[in-house]
Write a structure and sequence with these properties.
The complex is a heterodimer of chains A (72) and B (153).
Chain A lengths: L2 H8 L6 H5 L2 H22 L8 H10 L1 H7 L1
Chain B lengths: L1 H13 L1 H33 L4 H11 L2 H26 L5 H21 L2 H30 L4
Helix pairs in contact in B: 1-2, 1-4, 2-3, 2-4, 4-5, 5-6
Classes of the chains: A mainly alpha (72), B mainly alpha (153).
Amino acid sequence: MALSEVYISRYPQSHGRIAMVRTLSARVGVVSLVVGPLLIAGGDLMHPKEDADAADQAAIVLDHASRWYAAH
Amino acid sequence: MPGILVLADLASARRPRLGYLARILSLAGLAGFATIVGFEMLLGRLAQDGADRDTLTAVLDTFQSGPMFGVLAPFALTFFVGTGVVVYVLASQPGPYRWLSLAVGAGAALVLVEILSSIVVFSQVGNVVLLVAGAGFAWNIVRQSESEYTGGA
């Protein structure tokens, strides 16, 4: 039986939360739940506008090349 | 990616098969997204290096053509299906994750709307919603686990 299963059977009311937080991977995951979306949201907030037309989109990228690169 | 795996783990703790499905779909989706984001970085670098509008247009047209985007887009879309599975599992049961998972679903839906409409404000709002929901998940997981582990002391 895996360690997580042991914790789940020992603390069924926890729905596995104790097992998760008591592992390094879960701690990394918890931090990632904040840092990941923070990076993505930060990049997206500086994202230039988009256009479905390729030529118009190319013009936008040219006008905001650094912002475009940084946003991604 | 570790955060997405945590959400899939939470789903697996409740519905193992659906949690596994969500994990596979989300990872496949992230692979597709990474390819698209990498391409968009390439566009930015080409522009910084002096490429002209016709060159960028040709590169964009090539990437958005059927043989390229037709292969990559389904991969990226699996991310939304995987997220939907997580939301379904976590929102269908009472508990602290119901509203947080619905917020994740709303944020992901707004990002999908942006992809379909090219209106950036949708993904900007969606990603802020995802940030708030992610922080809520993290806070809830840590807080409730510590509380249960110490007997609520």
